[in-house]
Design brief:
The protein has about 350 residues and is of the alpha+beta class. About 50% of the residues lie in helices and about 25% in strands. The protein folds into 2 domains: about 100 residues, 3-Layer(aba) Sandwich (Profilin-like); about 150 residues, 2-Layer Sandwich (Beta-Lactamase). The N terminus is likely disordered. This is Cache domain-containing protein. Keywords: Membrane, Transmembrane, Transmembrane helix.
């Protein structure tokens, strides 16, 4: 059985419901900019943080590289000062030219060596000097040439004949490639020999100061932003001085690093090493031509940005919930007067 007046009333209710939904949708549509702004703000913040992240890594690497350069420069200056010392100039001479008076004063040379060695002991392993193939002077005294290089301080790459021929070199200062050295057949270290040659009494005096690679490692790690950061140091001949983590044993090589940073000295890039993504920063030494690279896992940056992502999502969720609640509240406030007017008109039309 049909009730008179029911159909018009049902139609009115349907229109009113559509009106309410339309008003609500208009208010809800205002939430779309919140989502867009939230996403944009997140990516903008991540971009800024990534630039800051890369800048910090590059800046710290540059600072550490400057410290290493300063150590090498100080070492070089100390060696030069020793060779130009007046006492050294008067006492250091080939054994066959030494008079009794000179031999009586030779004890002064180890003392001067000890004094100079104390200045740079923080970042060097040892220093020694010779002017012939007979004796080698160290801070502890005098050693026979062959015995010193074959037993007491044996280089992996440089034997006694190499050091004998070094007296004929025309290079005043030379940084040799890194080498392993065995001290007294027990202690093993990695060193970078710095060779300084000066002519004394028509003979070439050779001063050798060994930079301890561990000092380079500690200096670089001490300036690192993250403990997981690793380093690679290449000398002017693109030979590895330091690569404790073996980054150059895989697809990455000294040549590929040079290609990646060609024309972008002092910058940073994202590279894949053994299947893992790294932010690699590069600094080149202006003094000695060494290349310093830092390898920081990209995961460190992702951990760095998790807080921003969580904060952005939380803020967006809070704003969305508040927006939905206010949308319903304002929709009802706008809709109720319209509904009441509609109901009143309907009652007058269908008494």
């Amino acid at each position: 059985m049909k009730i008179p007046g029911m159909k018009p009333f049902s139609g009115m209710q349907s229109k009113q419901n559509r009106l309410f939904l339309t008003i609500l949708c208009y208010f809800l549509s205002l939430l779309i900019p919140i989502v867009i702004i939230g996403i944009s703000e997140y990516w903008y913040s991540v971009s800024l943080m990534k630039n800051e992240f890369n800048q910090r890594i590059s800046t710290n690497l540059d600072s550490s590289a400057n410290s290493v350069d300063s150590y090498i420069k100080t070492t070089q200056e100390t060696g030069v000062n020793f060779l130009f010392d007046d006492t050294v100039q008067s006492l250091l001479m080939p054994k066959n030219l030494q008079s009794l008076e000179v031999r009586a004063e030779l004890w002064r040379l180890p003392r001067i060596l000890q004094r100079n060695e104390n200045i740079i002991s923080k970042f060097t392993d040892s220093m020694f000097v010779y002017i012939d193939n007979q004796d080698v002077y160290v801070s502890g005294g005098v050693n026979y040439f062959e015995s010193f290089f074959n037993n007491l301080y044996k280089y992996d790459k440089y034997d006694a004949s190499y050091w004998m021929n070094k007296q004929r070199s025309d290079k005043g200062v030379e940084l040799l490639p890194v080498t392993k050295v065995v001290q007294e057949k027990i202690h093993v270290k990695q060193v970078v020999p710095i060779v300084i040659i000066n002519r004394i009494r028509n003979h070439n005096a050779v001063m050798v100061v060994n930079i301890d690679v561990q000092t380079i490692e500690k200096t670089l790690q001490g300036g690192a932003v993250f403990g997981s950061t690793g380093f690679v140091v290449l000398d002017g001949n693109r030979e590895a001085i330091y690569d404790a983590n073996g980054y150059l044993n895989g697809t990455v090589t000294a040549a590929s690093l040079n290609t990646a940073f060609e024309g972008n000295i002092g910058s940073s890039k994202e590279l894949t090493v053994s299947g893992k993504r790294y932010v690699v920063a590069h600094v080149k030494s202006d003094l000695y031509g060494w290349d310093y690279y830092s390898f920081t896992p990209l995961d460190e940056f992702n951990h760095y940005t998790v807080g921003i992502l969580q904060m952005t999502l939380l803020l967006c969720i809070v704003l969305m919930v508040m927006g939905i609640v206010f949308s319903f509240v304002f929709s009802f406030r706008i809709y109720n007067p319209i509904r009441n007017i509609g109901t009143l008109l309907h009652r007058r039309a269908y008494p």
